[in-house]
Design brief:
With 47 residues, the protein is mostly helical. The protein has a domain of 30 residues. 51% of the residues lie in helices and 0% in strands. The protein has two helices and no strands. It starts with 10 loop residues before the first helix and ends in a 7-residue tail after the last helix. The model has no long low-confidence stretch (mean pLDDT 92).
Length: 47
């Protein structure tokens, strides 16, 4: 089960995320942020 959260990020970071989505590295913003958090947390709860 997943929980909804809200985060604030600067425009430059969001533009990079959106560019990665367009390049099909990630399915959507949620996927991108979940991947990044997993990387920071050492791969815990891989999706």
């Amino acid at each position: 089960m997943k929980s909804k959260i809200s985060v604030s990020v600067d425009e430059e970071t969001l533009a990079k995320v959106d560019e990665s989505i367009l390049k099909r590295k990630f399915r959507n913003r949620s996927h991108a942020f979940e991947y990044a958090l997993n990387e920071v947390l050492g791969g815990q709860n891989e999706s």
